[in-house]
């Protein structure tokens, strides 16, 4: 029995500029917005098809979607995405079972969306559902109701074919509220932290048995907690966004779902069912114990804000669900949590619109799960938007180096480098380190590791200028920026990232990490901060298997079956 698990397709219909119509004015998002985002936009149109085609070629018919099927839940995008899936169901017999992501819906009433679309001359038009928003530097503004992101009352019926309601042929279907699948029967009260504001909210969790012996548990871990105060219940600002909340908000706001999960797990065990659980959000710390070092080096990052607390993982493990698949963070990772006899494995599934572009194939046996990580490196028509990107870049005096990519995976690798340059360094790194990174090479790091006195970031360049520099050679001439990009590749791809990094670089990185690990410096000095950086890198290299591996369903042990790193794809860190 095999199933495919995919996450975060973020499907965007490049053929439909909402409010304008099809064909004559395509809906291509700007390169500037793409470079600043954690995902690419336009490329999802062909990448989603390539992903589904790969699944069809492998003869798999059951597909679980761990949330964020759509770009941002826009009504026209939702319609296009569901039509695409229906087409694959009709032509190839694929059965899709999904969970909602934070980009698919918003609370009960929904929220406005606004996007910038490129024109043939490289300028852009703002298309929005909000008539009151300004157009800023866009040359035009189009207001379209099709851009609106719906809430539960709109989105879940639109996704009805993806398991959210009972369908003919299902051997079993239920939700936390019983066997009534009507949305109005799946409502609960959610309360603000001060206890003074109560809102009626829907929960879209469900359990389905699509084939004999297999239970798929789709957990709606979106939590839209009302903010304190008597605010407009239809306004976006009246709720805490589920993006950062995830599982950390589940015990307080959706304890009934956790109780139901425990009941489902117990029945699955008693009846001999194979239970696969999935939600949009990770249920275990995806940083594999490196959160403290990340907080020390970078302070507040999106990863840290979205990291499940240990007490939440403990509660989840106590439900007995054992194996859980997640999306949201666009990473490839396997995390294991143990608490006495309780254990839980969280398998984070990558996205086709972020590095690395991959999905999971799960073969379900009597005593183990075999998990294969499939990288979809090549996507036909991956460069559809490149011509417009170049026109935009020429108009804005910006770089279009990402358009030199030789394939989809290479494009995403280049996009990650641009994200480091335009997003991570300026927005998440401390200013002194962000300034220093582009000035150093690996030889400089080696000399800093050998410094006897503790340094600050501002001391680094004067110190290096005063110390004789060896003749430029081998790995020592590699810019530190390249290592930072590889650091993010490993952070996002773990084992799979090794197919995209030259083995000689890994050897150099381990050498530097050993030098910094051997030192002893006062907390907060430059060498101490760089040691945290190196320690995280080595921890990710030694983390639980995330390529091809097996999960022992009796013990929770994860055993690697990978033979990755044999082929290094084109290195594009400084593109």
Q: What is the helix tally?
A: 18
Major sheet: 7 strands, mixed
Radius of gyration: 24 Å
Q: Looking at the structure, what is the overall shape?
A: globular
Report, as a whole number of angstroms, the end-to-end distance.
42 Å
Report the portion of residues in β strands.
Answer: 15-25%
* Residue share in helix: 25-40%
Q: Catalogue the unreliable spans.
A: 570-575
Strand order of the largest sheet: 5-4-1-18-19-20-21
**Could you tell me the number of beta strands?**
21
Mean pLDDT: 93
**Broad structural category:** alpha/beta
Please characterize this protein's 3D structure:
With 575 residues, the chain is α/β, with parallel strands linked by helices. It has a domain at 404-548. The chain is 33% helix and 18% strand. The protein contains 18 helices and 21 strands. The strands form five sheets. It has a seven-stranded mixed sheet with strand order 5-4-1-18-19-20-21, with no helix packed on it. A seven-stranded mixed sheet has the order 9-12-13-14-15-17-16, covered by helices on one side.
What attributes does this structure have?
alpha/beta; 575 residues; 18 helices; disordered C terminus; seven-stranded mixed sheet
